[in-house]
Amino acid sequence: MLKDFPNGVKRFSKGHAVVDIFFPEGKETCQYCRFCYAEKELERFRCRITPTHQIIANPFVERAAFCPIVEIERKG
């Protein structure tokens, strides 16, 4: 419980953010995303940008199906 809310929190407000994520040329996979992180002791990867920090099955091959990145802009 947060000290500013001695009676608990009854509801939350939801905000949205637009962030840029840069991938190296032709490698738009989770492993290169700054929101992908490893739980080394459990030998698994998770996505920090999803609300529940979902587990990523294979971050080295593709972006996960639940990936919230909606557009990849390729240059060059």
Structure write-up:
The chain is extended. With 76 residues, the chain is an all-beta fold. The mean pLDDT is 89. Helices cover 0% and strands 13% of the residues. The N and C termini lie far apart (50 Å).
Structural class: mainly beta
* Number of H/I helices: 0
| Overall pLDDT | 89
Strand fraction: 5-15%
**Low-pLDDT regions:** none
**Major sheet:** 3 strands, antiparallel
Q: Mind telling me the C-alpha Rg? A: 16 Å
**Distance separating the two termini:** 50 Å
Biggest sheet, strands in spatial order? 1-2-3
What does the overall shape look like? extended
Strand runs, count: 3
Give me the strand/helix succession: EEE
Helix content: under 10%
Layout of strands and helices, then pairs:
Blueprint: E1 36-39, E2 44-47, E3 55-56
Summarize the structure.
With 76 residues, this protein is mainly beta.
Features:
three-stranded antiparallel sheet; 76 residues; extended; 0% helix; mainly beta
